[in-house]
Every structure is written in structure tokens, then in C-alpha cells.
Amino acid sequence: MILSLALGGLSVLSLIIAFIGGPEASPTEEEDGVIIWKKLISYIVALLAYAFLFDYLGYFMSSLIVLFFVLRFAEGVELVISLAVTFCTLIISYLVFDLLLLVPLPKGILGWP
Asked: How far apart, in whole angstroms, are the C-alpha atoms of residue 56 and residue 45?
């Protein structure tokens, strides 16, 4: 749990640095600082939720919720594309980490992989 919070904190710091100091931001985002701060807050909330949900809901369910939230609401990706990318990402990452590298992923209260 402590490691999850530490990694979440580092992720939040890197997001702040990326959003504030990113020279590659588009002119529309630079002109309207509200968009940048809404996205930043959305990402911070998503990372904190992921850190807290990971042990309780397990890898699959917490990743599903957080990745879908980020794609759909923070980035504004269409619903079908958000669902497709979320499930493909989860399946591939599960296959790589759990089956190929034999990394034990938390199953959570539902007992799902």
C-alpha cells in the first residue's frame, strides 16, 4: 500500500510537470488554462482512486474503472473507442504480467484476475 501511494505521488508530480512545463501543448490549451487544470485534476483523481482501489478491487476491476475514466472523461474519447482500448489494454497487460512474467496481480474481493 505504501509503495502504491509513493508511486502515485511520483505520477502526480510528473503530471504536474508535464502539464505546466510542456512546450508541446497546443495553442488552444495554452490560451485556456481551465482546460489544463481540469485535465490535471482529473488525472490526479484517477491516480489516487487507482492507488486506493487496487488492493480492494484487484488489478482488473480497478484498472478497468480508472482507464475508462481517463479515456472517456479526461481525454474525451468516444465511448466505443474508450471501451475497446480499455479492454485491449487490460487483456494484453494481464497476459504479459500474469501469464508471461508470472507477476502475481491482486485479485481483489471478487477473485477476478
From this structure: 17
Domain count for the chain: 1
Residues 16 and 35: their CA atoms lie apart, in Å, by: 14
Instruction: Answer yes or no: pTM beyond 0.85.
Output: no
Strand, helix or coil for residue 86: helix
Beta-carbon neighbour count of residue 2 at 10 Å? 6
Please list the rounded mean pLDDT of every run of 10 residues in the chain (113 residues): 56 56 50 69 88 88 90 86 90 89 85 68
Assess if residue 105 is contained within a domain.
no
Provide the residue range defining the domain that includes 16.
2-100
Q: What does the block give as the cell for 53? A: 482501489
Q: Are the C-beta atoms of residues 60 and 90 closer than 8 Å to each other?
A: yes
Q: Is residue 51 one of the residues assigned to a domain? A: yes
CA separation for the pair 17, 9 (Å, rounded): 12
Angle between helices 33-69 and 79-94 (to 10 degrees): 60
